[in-house]
């Protein structure tokens, strides 16, 4: 099977434009269409519904796409192994968001110490926007970051690994006996760092609830905190009501030091691993280790707190 045909199928499925795929593959729209037709003939399956305006995957296309993606990933790994035949030693630079620090990073470092004792891990903690720039500049080798709505780097591999729900968390003395939503919205609201995806999402849900209660956005007091450790400390001291990943305070919640409120949470955010397509096998190996550590962490915590993405 011609892997170039498979690559064309994958790109068309994600981009949805024959013209754009042709431009990216330095080909012509006619050649792109021909490759798909030949692949369909080899597979004895129709992959796309074609018309003059849209390009939609058929049921067979949807079913076969994950296998095509894995084939392309294996092909890229084969090419990297041929290019870098000797296992690397030295340093790998990993950029992470702070949520990783407070979830599965300790276990990841333990596993790395066991499996890759000769590799030095250099960590940096930044916002996702900064991490993506650093990856493009090759200032870091691997990212574990928020998967945002922006288009992913076409020269990088990005794979979602976990979904993190957001909860309303409060010290018991802040919880009103009645009119829960309105009274909670009148208090100091605490959330993650300003400029982050979770911050924007928390502000949106708070403003939505305020509108439903007849409150103006200007009546809300929402503070972004400089770190998750600060956010947890403020919530535990009863300084304000936190809109945050509940997994970070799972133990205080289980000890009833804090309480989860029955309020609509903002949309969960996803964590993803990213690294350049031409990265060395060492980096892809570390990415796979991080994915497996994250999977074990998620299964141990439970889906109410964090869900692994297969």
UniProtKB/TrEMBL annotation:
Pfam families: HTH_1, LysR_substrate. The keyword Transcription applies. Keywords: DNA-binding, Transcription, Transcription regulation. One of its GO terms (molecular function) is DNA-binding transcription factor activity. Residues 1-58 form the HTH lysR-type domain. CDD domains: PBP2_LTTR_substrate. Belongs to the LysR transcriptional regulatory family. PANTHER family: HTH-TYPE TRANSCRIPTIONAL REGULATOR (PTHR30126), TRANSCRIPTIONAL REGULATORY PROTEIN (PTHR30126:SF77). This is LysR family transcriptional regulator. The lineage of its organism: Bacteria, Pseudomonadati, Pseudomonadota, Gammaproteobacteria, Enterobacterales.
């Amino acid at each position: 099977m011609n892997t170039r045909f498979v690559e064309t199928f994958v790109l068309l499925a994600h981009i949805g434009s024959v013209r754009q795929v042709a431009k990216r593959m330095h080909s012509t729209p006619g050649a792109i269409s021909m490759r798909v037709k030949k692949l369909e003939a080899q597979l004895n399956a129709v992959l796309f519904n074609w018309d003059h305006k849209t390009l939609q995957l058929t049921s067979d296309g949807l079913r076969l796409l994950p296998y095509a993606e894995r084939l392309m990933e294996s092909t890229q790994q084969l090419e990297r192994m041929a290019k870098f035949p000797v296992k690397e030693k030295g340093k790998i630079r990993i950029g992470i968001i702070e949520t990783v620090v407070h979830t599965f990073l300790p276990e990841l470092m333990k596993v790395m110490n066991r499996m890759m004792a000769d590799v030095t891990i250099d960590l940096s903690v930044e916002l996702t926007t900064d991490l993506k720039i650093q990856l493009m500049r090759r200032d870091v080798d691997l990212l574990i970051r928020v998967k945002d709505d922006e288009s992913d780097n076409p020269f990088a591999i990005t794979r979602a690994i976990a979904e993190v729900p957001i909860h309303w968390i409060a010290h018991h003395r802040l919880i009103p006996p009645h009119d829960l939503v309105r009274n909670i919205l009148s208090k100091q609201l605490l959330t993650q760092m300003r400029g982050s995806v979770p911050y924007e999402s928390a502000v949106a849900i708070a403003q939505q609830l305020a509108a439903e209660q007849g409150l103006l956005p200007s009546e809300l007091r929402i503070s972004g905190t400089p770190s998750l450790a600060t956010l947890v400390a403020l919530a535990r001291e009863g300084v304000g009501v936190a809109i945050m990943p509940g997994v970070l305070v799972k133990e205080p919640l289980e000890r009833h030091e804090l309480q989860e409120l029955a309020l609509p949470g903002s949309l969960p955010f996803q964590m993803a691993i990213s690294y350049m397509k031409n990265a060395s096998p060492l980096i892809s190996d570390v990415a796979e280790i991080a994915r497996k550590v994250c999977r074990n962490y998620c299964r141990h915590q439970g889906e109410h707190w964090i869900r692994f993405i297969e």
